[in-house]
Amino acid sequence: MKIAISSTGRDLESTVDIRFGRCPFFVIVEIEDNEIKSTKFIENPAGKLAGGAGPTAAEAVANEGVEKIITVNVGPRAFGVLQQLGIEIYQGNGKIKDVVQLFIEGKLVKISGATGPMHLGLGAGRRHGRGGP
Predict the structure, then answer these.
(1) In this predicted structure, what is the pLDDT of residue 115?
(2) Which secondary-structure segment (H or E) carries 79?
(3) Which pLDDT does position 126 carry in this prediction?
(4) Which residue ranges of the chain lie beneath pLDDT 50?
(5) How many CA atoms within 13 Å lie on the side-chain side of 30?
(6) Which residues contact 62 (CB under 8 A, 6 or more apart)?
(7) Is 61 exposed, middle or buried (0-12, 13-18, 19+ CB in 10 A)?
């Protein structure tokens, strides 16, 4: 089985990115007999899109043959596309390697609806995505 995890970086020590559609990377993990068989890191082609990031990200992971997603938040449009594609979504937070182990152990919660608003992570806060105090 293949799962995709929204990631802040390109290794298993990276953390789960809170955004599905706008995460910088996805970790594609293949699990066989309750063990990690392989890992692959891909750039999220939707990470910097002005609009439509969720559906674009959903299609990108579907093209990798993913059956399940692990993330913190998923918006309504991404949720709809993933649901249509038959891809299940689980909520997990922390280091990628730890979250994968929790998934294998059946300890992650399956998401049954959108958990975040559209356009999460577009810099709509005070600093408009530019950081700073």
Answers:
(1) 87
(2) helix 76-84
(3) 42
(4) 121-133
(5) 6
(6) 82, 85, 87
(7) buried
